[in-house]
Prior knowledge:
The chain is an alpha/beta fold. The chain has helices at about 5-15, 40-55, 55-65, 80-85, 90-105, 125-140, 160-175, 220-235, 240-270, 290-295, 305-325, 345-350, 355-360, 380-400, 440-445; strands at about 20-30, 70-80, 110-120, 145-150, 155-160, 185-190, 210-220, 275-280, 335, 370-375, 400-410, 415-420, 425-430, 445-450.
Amino acid sequence: MFENHEIIATLEMLKNEHLDVRTVTLGLSLFDCISHNIFKFKTNVENKITQYARDLVMVCNQVGDKYGINVVNKRISISPVALIAAPFPPYQMVEIAKMLNEVAESVNIDFIGGFTALVEKGMAKGDLSLIEAIPEALSSTNRVCASVNVASTRAGINMDAVILMAKAIKITAELTRDRDGIGCAKLCVFSNIPQDIPFMAGAYLGPGEPDMVINVGVSGPGVVKNAIDRALAQDQKLDLGKIAELIKRTACRVTRVGELIGREVAERLDVPFGVVDLSLAPTPTVGDSVGEIFQSLGLSHIGVPGSTAALAMLNDAVKKGGAFASSHVGGLSGAFIPVSEDLNIAESVKNGHLNIEKLEAMTSVCSVGLDMVAIPGDTSFETIAGIIADEMAIGMINNKTTAVRLIPVPGKKPGDEANFGGLLGQATIIDVKNRTAGNPFILHGGRIPAPIHSLRN
């Protein structure tokens, strides 16, 4: 139950600080839909999604109206398509993606995630078919999101898969050239991908998850920023330990709001409740920025010296607060730094305060990685593969999730602008050094072995 002062504080968060439930994601296992007949398979999938997701949007809106809390996105995550559609060739994988898009439109959800392959240790027939299908699947649909896990702490880095994903990114960008390569905004390459992510583009339902589940993603960078501002207005000498405690307590309140909404949605749909993913996921709206938190902490811009330490503190405090508020915190919980989706971070790139090297350094302590980073369209696939491999290494060695969502914008060079619209925002094309073809290290392929600390049995 909420105390009176908590209710008042929560109302202030909702009214003035951009607090919302960023997503309610219905996870659906589709292993019981498997068939070698493509028509039967698509019919089974369509029927199951329609049956269990048809009331999702209505229920989310009803619960949101009841509490005065906006549920911004309603989404579906499904079992990895590379597993459940393993018998099918690439062209039929594209058919499946188009069917998923149509079903998503019919039940009026924003995105459907799970066009996914898990290839950290090797690639089976279904994995190869799905990866080959990704460019056409994403360029010909609006609501389908794809993710491929190419590395893990236990398995190492599958460099053959890294090369294939770099090529897929290049082709996807070219196929959506008229929209600044937006197809790549729906594609994530992961190390250590969790099975219960509610956020896109990485969301899918892992094989170890229930048949159906509601997972919630809560955001609140504006809430955290305002809490810091109020505290420092009263005491400018507040030390970082006390600021971290403040962030933790704020994250706790935000998590409780998310769990309240998630549990009621799950109850009304008669679906088990899964996890709250408390991620400080920004939007292009002023006042809803992770970058602005850095300025509240005293840094002139995100990217200047001290930024990595500030992000580490922020990420840890958010996780501690969420863990205290709920026994079921999962997904990616922490702080996101998606360049185009955060107006303040995008401005830092534009003004030269933040480059791709500093972004990579910061991903060692944040919850995701190189997220929504627009790069020159002439960046070679070898260079993109090198960037992916570097990011995967950070995740593998540090036993954490990292991801890459790069957008090589066709026809644009460093300093140009790319506009993706809506929640995806806009970004200045960031410079990438040595972006020409040729990288013998990457082209060796094979698998980079897992680190010694992966032997924990």
